[in-house]
Write a structure and sequence with these properties.
Helix content is about 45%, strand content about 10%. It is α/β, with parallel strands linked by helices. The protein has four domains: about 190 residues, Rossmann fold (3-Layer(aba) Sandwich), CATH 3.40.50; about 200 residues, P-loop containing nucleotide triphosphate hydrolases (Rossmann fold, 3-Layer(aba) Sandwich); about 110 residues, Orthogonal Bundle (Arc Repressor Mutant, subunit A); about 70 residues, DNA polymerase, domain 1 (Orthogonal Bundle). Strands 3-4-2-5-6-1-7 form a seven-stranded parallel sheet, with helices on both faces. A hairpin with a 5-residue loop joins strand 15 and strand 16. The chain starts with a helix and ends with a helix. About 5% of the residues have low confidence.
Length: about 625
């Protein structure tokens, strides 16, 4: 079969997404490839289709067991020969899989990089291996956000295969430096490099700066009941505390972190994937490779250490193109926690100084994202070198009414305070500066004699939150600097021009309202987005094709009654087959059924995600339900 036939017959799609066909053709022509494609853009099809065409067995190197299981289950459901080798297999399962491999029944084999050095790998490396795929390829780079030493063994494994296979590397998040590392460390030969962009138009980004995170989290979840989501926390302790809080409030939550034993981690992960639990509370140990397509929100209870980690974790929402929310609950304590985690390893020892300095700089960029008032999507995409318009219309900053005000006078007061501290040979963090400016009478200020400074209490009538916002703005503009270390301190930057009469500091601040407006639903938010995008002179970063697809996904009038019935049927089938519901059909496929209401097998074959195997397997039972519903 050719590539288009496989796309239609095996996977149920009529056309390729941007970048897919280009990568597929490159692999089939024998050229290495490096593809940077956002989560949900269809990276897996870029190597699965060539694997089904090429003679022999394709090896897919993947970092996590959960991804392997999901991919193999999905491939088997589509009628493709696939298997995985990892620590979850018992002796007999491992032997059976090896027999299938040696007898040529497997077209795609998923393995973890740690297994590449095992002696039994040489048993099948002598077979025909036309293609080696490296998924999550950013893990090979020390400068990436998820470096894994096991990935450094991949190039040696590829060299052991004769003749050398085509090598294709895939990642959703990689800066230019990381991409260069991938090419070098995987020894790619004149690869085709494809970057389809990092934008995920279906994701709504939001930063909240709550006084009480627990209250804010509960409010977020109350508005998202009965939907599947992930809550990320910085530490194991916070995961445990948060999970207990949610359970006590009636939320169907479970937890995941490296401190749990293997059995509990596996059980909890399966409970989430199979929808027995709707909320997963986890550290960043959870999620890479999770292919769960119906995650409708990701909430970061703590700010991650860098933008790459945040974008990777937030990107686990809305994988099937559905509208989804990515919410960050931010306060200054997050920065201090991350600074400690960066500068100390698990044993409390100082980390590598060069790497430490690099990671602290990445943390600074993440802090600017969380504390700033400009377009959140622009901040994210700009970090990866992608130029966008000044307003995306689909983030909390773009949908918040801001007023640009002149903060020159309070800025001068803040900078003067930093200068007066410097005169006394002292530098302190943001909290101490705010306390001095507001005239705090705490013991430390009296002990150091800071209550005698000329800047003491000169902003007593300004809230600590407002001073912190202006302080963050000054750091963002380079007027002040935040020097990293075990205890980060604020020092002078390019502050000379601030005290010249012609130099003004303008800052966008949210309009103060008497009562916060109720949070909009994803549909209401999208309606406002359309208003913004259709306004004269407004351009968005998404191309017209992506926009029309997302518009259809987010604005269609779905028959929710039918959708509920389809989800119930899907869940029953998934339970019988012992697979996650989204392996049977994704939510996007179910919504397409609601739009098209197919009542015959011919019509059902036109639903996105319905290939020949699924048509034969599920066509009658789903069209029967739809006919019955339409008759009602």
């Amino acid at each position: 079969m050719d590539k288009l036939t496989i796309l239609r017959e095996k996977f149920g799609y009529s056309s390729f997404r941007p970048g897919q066909e280009e990568v597929i053709d490159s692999i089939l022509e024998g050229t290495d490839a490096l593809a940077v494609m956002p989560t949900g853009a269809g990276k897996s099809l870029c190597y699965q289709i060539p694997a089904l065409i090429l003679e022999g067995m394709t090896i897919v190197i993947s970092p996590l067991i959960s991804l392997m299981k999901d991919q193999v289950n999905a491939l088997k459901t589509a009628g493709c020969g696939a298997a995985f080798l990892n620590s979850s297999l018992n002796g007999s399962e491992y032997a059976r899989t090896m027999n299938q491999i040696m007898s040529g029944k497997i077209k795609l084999l998923y393995i973890a990089p740690e297994r590449l050095q095992r002696e039994d790998m040489s048993e099948f490396s002598a077979n025909s291996i036309p293609l080696v795929v490296v998924d999550e390829a950013h893990c090979v780079s020390q400068w990436g956000h998820d470096f894994r030493t096991s990935y450094l063994q991949i190039a040696r494994f590829i060299r052991s295969i004769d003749p050398r296979p085509v090598v294709a590397a895939f990642t959703a998040t990689a800066t230019m430096n990381v991409r260069d590392d991938i090419r070098k460390l995987l020894a790619l030969r004149a690869p085709l490099c494809v970057n389809t962009g990092f934008d995920r138009p279906n994701l709504y980004f939001e930063v909240q700066k709550p006084k009480d995170k627990k209250t804010a989290l509960l409010e977020c979840l109350e508005k998202r009941k009965d939907t599947s989501g992930i809550i990320y926390c910085a530490t194991r302790k916070t995961v445990d505390e948060t999970c207990r809080l949610l359970a006590s409030r009636g939320f169907n939550a479970t937890r995941y972190h490296a401190g749990l034993d293997d059995g509990e981690r596996r059980t909890n992960q399966d409970d989430f994937i199979y929808d027995r639990k709707t909320v997963m509370v986890a550290t960043n140990a959870f999620g890479m490779g999770i292919d769960k397509s119906n995650v409708s929100f990701v909430i970061h209870y703590n700010m991650p250490k860098n933008i790459e980690s945040y974008y990777q974790e937030a990107g686990r929402a809305g994988r099937d193109g559905s509208p989804a929310d990515c919410v960050l609950l931010y306060n200054g304590q997050d920065v201090r926690i991350n600074q400690y985690l960066i500068t100390h390893d698990e044993d409390g020892e100082a980390a590598n100084e060069k790497l430490q300095a690099h990671n602290l700089e990445l943390l600074k960029q993440m802090t600017f994202y969380a504390a700033g008032n400009d377009c959140l999507r622009k901040r994210l995409l700009g970090y990866f070198g992608e130029k966008t318009s000044s307003s995306c219309g689909n983030c909390s900053n773009c949908l918040t009414e801001f007023k640009e005000i002149d903060v020159t006078v309070p800025a001068q007061k803040i900078v003067s305070c930093v200068y007066r501290l410097k005169q006394r040979g002292r530098s302190f963090g943001k909290t101490m500066i705010i306390d001095i400016l507001r005239g705090s009478k705490n013991e430390k200020i009296r002990r150091f004699g800071f209550d005698t400074l000329s800047t003491y209490a000169i902003m007593a009538d300004t809230s600590a939150q407002r001073i912190r916002l202006i302080l963050d703005c000054l750091i963002d503009k380079g007027i002040l600097l935040l020097e990293e270390g075990e205890y980060p301190v604020v020092t002078l930057g390019n502050a000379e021009d601030l005290f010249r009469e012609e130099e003004r500091v303008l800052m966008k601040l949210p309009e103060e309202r008497e009562k916060a407006a109720p949070e909009k639903t994803s549909q209401q938010k999208y309606e406002k987005i359309l208003d913004i995008q259709n306004a004269p002179g407004i351009k968005t970063s998404q191309d017209s094709g992506a926009k029309s697809s997302v518009t259809q996904n987010m604005s269609d009038d779905i028959d929710n009654d039918l959708l509920g019935k389809l989800k119930k049927l899907r869940k029953e089938i998934a339970a019988k087959e012992s697979v996650p519901s989204y392996i049977v059909f994704t939510d996007a496929s179910l919504r397409d059924m609601c739009r098209k209401k197919p009542v015959s097998l011919v019509q059902f074959s036109g639903v996105n995600g319905v290939g020949s195997v699924k048509l034969e397997k599920y066509g009658e039972i789903f069209t029967d339900l739809i006919r019955e519903h339409c008759g009602e």
